[in-house]
Structure formats: C-alpha cells, structure tokens
Amino acid sequence: MSQDDIRNKAEELKGEAKETVGDWTDDESLESEGKADQAKANVKQAGEKAEDAVRDVRDGVHEAYEG
Description:
Elements: H1 3-24, H2 28-66
Helix pairs in contact: 1-2
C-alpha cells in the first residue's frame, strides 16, 4: 500500500467519522462535510487505480514488444 493510498483511506475514514458525528448531533453542516471528504477521497482512489491500470497495460505492451 502506497503513502497516497494510506492518506486517501485516512481521509475517507475521517469523512465517515464526521458524517457519523454530524448525524448523531443533528449537525447537517458537519454531516455534509464528512460526505464531501469521503467523495474526495474516493475520487482520488479511483484516479490512482486508473493510473495503475494504464501502467499495467503499458508494461504489458512493452513486454510483448520485447518478447
């Protein structure tokens, strides 16, 4: 797991905590902030997965060309 993966997961968990506390305390602003934090972390995670997929395809093409 990379440092970016760890940071993104931590941001997602922080968002979940904010959302939960906001729900428990009827603080709609905190709840919304938590949902936004989670969405931001999920977008970052999706981008990193896409980068990994492109890298895997590139490496596979490179290997096939050399092989």
